[in-house]
Design goal:
Layout lengths: L5 H9 L4 H24 L2 H17 L10 H23 L7 H11 L7 H11 L3 H12 L4 H8 L3 H20 L3
Helix pairs in contact: 1-2, 2-3, 2-4, 3-4, 4-8, 5-6, 6-9, 7-9
Length: 183
């Protein structure tokens, strides 16, 4: 298999006859990292798979609108981010706040997920992450788990690097405080 070459892929996307091949290369290149970014937001394997599929469907149907002003990864992350936010907002809207706590439901879903292989520490970290506001959680996941640069996140979120650094700092402090309260 040939190594991924973005300029070559972009060229393939320009021609109708090679567009499918170019898009297959994109899916192959970005599926795993997008899956894990989505999974860290929604926790459930099934939901993450559905959202990953939605992300690629939206990318495919809108590929003509990609202008290559940003990297393909940035564009895909933005689509995935929007898919996650839409999903989480729908999930929150369907859960009645007085009866159900959406974050607690998400953690409970994770605990019962047969694909979850984490230990107690990992589960505690996921609980701490679920207590964070969505943007802080996303920034933390991108920086901590994927080592993404603030400049790249800035393009995805449309936010300044300084604001992202502040979000990450606040997320770390909240996670530390959460974990201190656990015996």
């Amino acid at each position: 298999m040939t190594p991924y070459n973005e300029p070559e892929v972009l060229e393939l996307l320009q021609e109708e006859s090679t567009r499918r091949k170019g898009f297959e290369m994109i899916v192959s290149q970005y599926s795993e990292q997008l899956y894990w970014q989505i999974r860290r937001m929604v926790l459930s394997h099934e939901d993450a798979n559905d959202l990953l599929q939605n992300t690629f469907i939206k990318a495919w149907t809108n590929i003509d609108y990609f202008r290559a002003e940003a990297k393909l990864a940035t564009w895909l992350y933005r689509i995935a981010l929007n898919e996650c936010l839409t999903f989480l907002n729908k999930q929150r809207a369907t859960a009645t706040v007085t009866i159900d706590d959406p974050e607690a439901m998400a953690v409970q879903k994770l605990e019962s997920d047969s694909y979850f292989s984490g230990d107690r520490v990992h589960l505690l970290l996921q609980k701490a992450l679920m207590a964070l506001p969505e943007k802080q959680r996303m920034v933390f996941n991108m920086k901590y788990y994927q080592g993404m640069k603030y400049e790249d996140m800035s393009e995805i979120f449309g936010t300044s690097v300084g604001a992202l650094k502040a979000s990450y700092h606040h997320a770390v402090k909240k996670i530390e405080k959460f974990l201190e309260g656990v015996d």
